Amino acid sequence: MKFLKNKGRGLLLCLCIATPSWVLGQQYPVIGGPVFAILMGMVIGFCYGTKESLTAGITFASKKVLQYAVILLGFGLNLSSILKTGATSLPIIVCTISTSLIISYVLCKVMHIPGKIATLVGVGSSICGGSAIAATAPVIDADDAEIAQSISIIFLFNIIAALIFPTLGEVLGFSNQGFGIFAGTAINDTSSVTAAASAWDSMHNTGTQVLDTATIVKLTRTLAIIPITLVLALHRAKHEKVEGNKVSIKKVFPMFILYFVLASVITTVFQYMIDQSVITGAAATTIVELFAFLKKVSKFFIVVAMAAIGLNTDLIKLVKTGGKPILMGFACWVGIAVVSFSLQQMLGIH
Fold it and tell me: Which residue, of 87, 170, 287, 317, is most buried by count of CB atoms within 10 Å of its CB?
């Protein structure tokens, strides 16, 4: 009851924004529910403001619900399948992630872009868009405006990639496998990877061949959330004094990432037992459906959190400060695409 009294109204507002945003995201997956939620939240916050009685619930949604979303994301990761199928693309994934992080670091220094925005744009571009930003933001203590700006930048280049990459792939002479790997490594967010790969399948009548390849490659990239967030946590702890220079374990190792890993392990173990017929029949079906449901809940939680972030974001300030981060996002996006294409040529993946 105390929770509902303190946080209920603000959380309810976030849910009221998230629900239509989720529906719109299903209708327009290239844009996605999180972007609709941020935009609605910013407009409502700009036009009506947010009352003090709503603050606690909005803050809970933007911080805690975001972490819960990352934890539940683990139920969509079967580690054995990802590592087995994604092994071919692993060198490309490592190089594209490194490229994006290096570009964001260099431009951060050269263009004097705030470090947290640079980190979020670099990680979001290189790993998995909104999910990576959701995982990284609590670790580096990014505020809502920085998260909203980073998500908006990633969204911009997601749209462009989903629209032009299938045609670009034809011009570059990709095979079905080659384009699947290219889409999975060079496009930021899962929704846009899916859109581009599906467009290629439709253009070439290949069923879901390219979509399946691109999705596995994209999920393999998602695993990079684990080392990246832990490294960032260690980096933050090194530069932050906490009670007599002693750093708490919770600050060094963000617990929600460990729960994310645990969820992935649980998924992997149960899927293995189903594949080996240890679990069969209705029990197997129930487990698969449960994991699919939890993955969907994870995505909805991200939309709820983005609604809260939109409500807390100063729209005017966001527009005024957006130029340099957008340029950084463009540089990361182009760098990743060039490296992905070049390495595929070197490795003989066409």
Answer: 287
- Name the token pair of 201: 């399948």
The answer to whether the beta carbons of residues 337 and 169 sit under 8 Å apart is no
- Tokens read off for 310: 């939109």
How many angstroms separate the CA atoms of 179 and 185, rounded? 10
Q: Token digits for 215?
A: 């999705």
The residues, any chain, with a CB within 8 Å of residue 224's CB and separated by 6 or more, are 93, 97, 126, 127, 132
Whole-number Å distance between alpha carbons of 150 and 172: 30
C-alpha to C-alpha distance for 124 and 188, rounded to whole angstroms: 7
Q: Which of 62, 51, 17 is nearest to 36 (CA)?
A: 17
In DSSP notation, 34-101 reads HHHHHHHHHHHHHHH---HHHHHHHHHIIIIIHHHHHHHHGGG--HHHHHHHGGGGHHHHHHHHHHHH
For the whole model, what pTM was predicted? Answer: 0.79
- Asked if 154 and 189 touch (Cβ cutoff 8 Å), the reply is yes
Average the pLDDT over 329-342 and give the result: 92
pLDDT single digits (tens) 298-329: 989 989 988 888 887 766 666 666 688 889 99
Query: How far is residue 183's CA from residue 219's CA, in Å, rounded to a whole number?
Result: 12
Residue-averaged pLDDT of the chain:
83
DSSP 223-252: TTHHHHHHHHHHHHHHT---TTTPPPHHHH
Tokens coding 78: 């079967």
3-state class of 141 per DSSP?
Answer: coil
Q: What is the DSSP letter of 313?
A: S
